[in-house]
Amino acid sequence: MEHLPRVWQMPGRSRKEQCEESLPCRVEMVSVGISTELCQARWEVETDEIVLQRRQKQIDYGKRTPGYQCFLQQVPKAQRQPGLHPQTPNKNRRYSRRSWDAQIRQWRKALHSWDPPSQPLQGRGAEGQGMETPLLEPMDSTPLDGLLDDWLQTLEP
């Protein structure tokens, strides 16, 4: 107890009482409420035309996906709920490049949940006959393994 101020070392009194007596005036705690809703008056508007064009290109790319097309057909705009349905990021709001890229990535990922059910791919045989091919074939090694071995051999004396 040697490291505590002398006021706090007094036996029989609570630490709170001892602390309040040591303060020159009484301090009261005040609760402050902060709204978490987005306010358009608070955000800055993106004015750089190159940035706006790049963002629009990314949005257009996402809107051309099969998932977005299915989403449009299944969920009318009036029935969309934030948090439940994907929302296109606001290209006119000023964001850092990293923040914008993260929002686009999240939006595109959410759109994939609306992708149509995948159908088996139809390939062509030697005679032009349609035959089913698996979507993924197991691989023993990656194509880069051979290149890495060749490169390492050229480095050896």
UniProtKB/TrEMBL annotation:
Pfam families (UniProt xref): SLBP_RNA_bind
Gene Ontology CC, one term: histone pre-mRNA 3'end processing complex
Region: Disordered, residue numbers: 77-97, 110-157
Sorted UniProt keywords: RNA-binding
Alphabetized InterPro entries for the sequence: SLBP1/SLBP2, SLBP_RNA_bind, SLBP_RNA_bind_sf
Record bears the keyword RNA-binding: yes
Positions of the Histone RNA hairpin-binding protein RNA-binding domain: 48-116
Biological process, per Gene Ontology: mRNA 3'-end processing by stem-loop binding and cleavage; mRNA transport
MF GO annotations: histone pre-mRNA stem-loop binding; mRNA binding
Protein's UniProt keywords contain Transmembrane helix: no
Gene3D superfamilies cross-referenced by the UniProt entry: Histone RNA hairpin-binding protein RNA-binding domain
Coiled-coil region(s): none
Subunit structure and binding partners: Monomer. SLBP/pre-mRNA complex interacts with ZNF473. Interacts with the Importin alpha/Importin beta receptor, LSM1, MIF4GD, TNPO3 and UPF1. Interaction with LSM1 occurs when histone mRNA is being rapidly degraded during the S phase. Found in a ternary complex with ERI1 and the stem-loop structure of the 3' end of histone mRNA. Associates with polyribosomes. Identified in a histone pre-mRNA complex, at least composed of ERI1, LSM11, SLBP, SNRPB, SYNCRIP and YBX1. Binds in a cooperative manner with ERI1 to the mature 3'-end of histone mRNAs.
Summary of the function given for this chain in its UniProt record: RNA-binding protein involved in the histone pre-mRNA processing. Binds the stem-loop structure of replication-dependent histone pre-mRNAs and contributes to efficient 3'-end processing by stabilizing the complex between histone pre-mRNA and U7 small nuclear ribonucleoprotein (snRNP), via the histone downstream element (HDE). Plays an important role in targeting mature histone mRNA from the nucleus to the cytoplasm and to the translation machinery. Stabilizes mature histone mRNA and could be involved in cell-cycle regulation of histone gene expression.
Family listed: Belongs to the SLBP family.
Protein name: Histone RNA hairpin-binding protein
Organism (species): Pipistrellus kuhlii
Taxonomic lineage: Eukaryota, Metazoa, Chordata, Craniata, Vertebrata
